[in-house]
Amino acid sequence: MSRPRVLLGVTGGIAAYKSTDVVRRLIERGCEVKCALTRSAGSFVTPLSLEVLSGHAVYEQEYLTANGRGEESHIVAAQWADAVCVAPATAHLMARLALGLADDFLTTTLLAFTGPVLLAPAMHSDMWSHAATAAHVETLSNRGVHFVGPEEGPLASGEVGVGRMSEPVDVAEAVMRLAVSGGAGVTGALAGRRVLISAGPTHEPIDPVRYLGNRSSGKMGFALAAEAARQGASTTLVAGPVALPTPAGVERIDVTTAFEMRDAVYRHAGEAELIVMTAAVADFRPSSPAGGKIKRARGVPTLELEENPDILAGLPEVAPRALLVGFAAETEPSVEEATAKLARKGADFLIWNDVSRSDIGFGAENNEVTVYSRSGEPSHLERRPKEELAVALIDLFRDALEDRERSAVGTAG
Ligand code: CTP
Questions:
Q1: pTM for this model (two decimals)
Q2: Domains located in the chain, CATH noted
């Protein structure tokens, strides 16, 4: 997928200085960003800062008309963007948008734009609670406009109240989810859920240049993370050493060893509702990696190994409420082994694939798996591209999450 494209509108409020941070956060997350300033925003943040950070000329007031190439800039911008975010959004901007007024570049673009729109309001709490603002917010919400914030906290006036713009990182994440999912970030099947996925191999150092590793390419885990984000989940991907681009809308944490992977996974596990361990974690590591390169002249070394922690098996304790999924790459598939492994790991699902076949599994474009669950018959998903398999699996996990929640409600009732 190409980089998600976000048009960031900035209006004239004291929070406009935070817009530079929103740009930075979006770019860090792989988005392409263009900025549009209203006339009064220019008093709070300079177009030059936004131009340098975004790498694009900033649209200002005068871009309302043709750009010299016979194109209307607001139409070109509206067709370019996957999502439009206005941060900060003043009461005035919301009023203009609610009424369909189009008297500058940003408002004409918003009228011409058919994709998802996110507003991050910022104003004094009395302005936010004013009946006029409340009516405009309601009109805009009914029209499908999304909101993030405002938050409660200290205001520019020194008072405390509801009206602060949400933190730039939260604004960036919300708009990126909208851009990636075409609006599903708020309404998608996994909207509001947190998903944690591990992928790739781990490398266990033997000396500074050599390691123990395995053939995992990370493709299956990356495809699952891309699909979870597309369905609107807030998705974290803990990736071992692999050469794959970060899927759009996914927060990626790079690790090398099993220990690093365990720490990153456990740090994020508590808040996740679904955890999928596709990583091929090395079971053993050299007990005492050499500090310097092992020299040939010293003769054939003997490697002493010790056991790595089992990350998945520890998850029922770290994340007792999460749905846990393990992957097993096996050369000799067996139902008894699969059932025993499911129980040993305390996982809800075990996705079993046969890596002795060259057309599926490690490094291949396709995969074919059998899904074992603690509660039900195994089911087989026929050979297909890993991206398609990811859709089927994420749908399956989502159904399981929903079933579990329904039965929890049933039990409580
Ligand atoms: N796993 C893990 N930590 C490990 C080893 C494996 O979290 N140290 C996870 C994998 O990410 C995978 C699942 O456990 O989701 C099954 O991996 P597998 O290698 O099949 O499990 P092992 O316990 O190593 O079993 P075996 O003895 O068959 O290799």
A1: 0.70
A2: 5-181 (3.40.50.1950), 194-412 (3.40.50.10300)
